[in-house]
Amino acid sequence: MRVLAAMSGGVDSSVAAARAVAEGHDVVGVHLALSTAPGALRTGSRGCCSREDAGDARRVADVLGIPFYVWDFADRFKEDVIDEFVADYAAGRTPNPCVSCNEKIKFSALSDRAVALGFDAVVTGHYARLHGGELRRAVDVDKDQSYVLAVLTREQLSRAMFPVGDTRKSGIRDEAAALGLAVADKADSHDICFIPSGDTRAFLGARIGVRTGTVVDADSGDILADHDGVHGFTIGQRKGLGISAPAADGKPRYVTDIDPTSGTVTVGSVDRLQVWSIRVERPVWTSGTTPDGPFEATVQVRAHGGMAAVTAEAITVDGSPMIEISLHTPLTGVAAGQTAVLYADDPDRGDLVIGSGRIGGTRGDRPVEATVGSATQR
């Protein structure tokens, strides 16, 4: 096949490209210039799309003996990922920009251009596996990226290749070293790639500006502090609340609700963070078929962690498709804007992605349970 290898300049995408070459594919490497300041240099493990990263990718392509190009997607990235990220925080939501980047850049804009140019598939260094068109977790669970790929449609997955998903990270580094790739020991990138400083609050504040509001106690209704904007808070946040005095019971307070209209940030005990049901918007079913009726699954609400057994059902609300998720045990820190991913709850297929969507709302009230004889019914 003629394949396009997306090369970030890191070890994972480099080995993915190398494996595609070794399998006999006709490979062309491409580095996506996503930064509006392409001359910027990486700071340790922070940042991406820097001059350093592009140079590393080019040197790997030279070693592999494949053509290499740099494609400028900076404007598209700003519009579809950065601007959406800022807008979501301004609206009191908690987005995952890596999900948006995969959905709208790497497997939409990039894949569409690749197909238009005659390529059969796009190769990336994501830690995930594809079997028969089904998206599954990677062998290295600690590095698994199926969560951020779960927004891809069946058609998009049919044009994707994830060569490193069957290998642990340590093995990928060893393979890169054996191939003589200088990126073998390069640090992984962390945090949000377009905020190299790591200071998300400052990044958002510079773009949203001051929109004052209050921090309110969930129990008493007392105003505990003033703030400069709801973009500085996320559900479940404990530190940086600007509160000078401890709670009456001496226990920590957490952000339990954000109202972007009034600018009110509500804080309370950890018990108030418990979520028993989730309403998911804009669902994507990776099989291409919407499940019929309720089904058992495992939900994951964060890229690393936040998992629980659930009963899920595809529903329609005011003409819009959604997913209603009832948790068997509660989760905490679940926020609107996050992505919920459903995995098959089966001993043989427990790593299979069923579908995903954006969390639109949650409920904290526990499902009613009625006892009939010795059985408990929910």
* CATH homology group of the largest domain: HUPs
Q: What's the helical proportion of residues?
A: 10-25%
Low-pLDDT segments: 370-378
- What structural category do the secondary elements indicate? alpha/beta
- Cα shape: globular
CATH class of the largest domain: Alpha Beta
Report the sheet with the most strands, covering strand number, pairing sense and barrel closure: 6 strands, antiparallel, barrel
Determine the strand fraction and express it as a percent band. 25-35%
* Number of separate structural domains: 3
Mean pLDDT score: 91
CATH-assigned fold name of the largest domain: Rossmann fold
Number of strands: 19
Architecture of the largest domain, CATH level 2?
3-Layer(aba) Sandwich
**Discrete helix count:** 8
Enzyme class: transferase
InterPro entries: MnmA-like, MnmA-like_C, MnmA-like_central, MnmA-like_central_sf, Rossmann-like_a/b/a_fold
EC number: 2.8.1.13
Subcellular location: Cytoplasm
Summarize the structure in words.
By secondary structure, this protein is α/β, with parallel strands linked by helices. It folds into three domains: 2-185, Rossmann fold (3-Layer(aba) Sandwich); 210-271, SH3 type barrels, CATH 2.30.30.280; 274-370, Translation factors (Elongation Factor Tu (Ef-tu), domain 3), CATH 2.40.30.10. The chain is built from eight helices and 19 strands. The model is unreliable at 370-378 (pLDDT under 50).
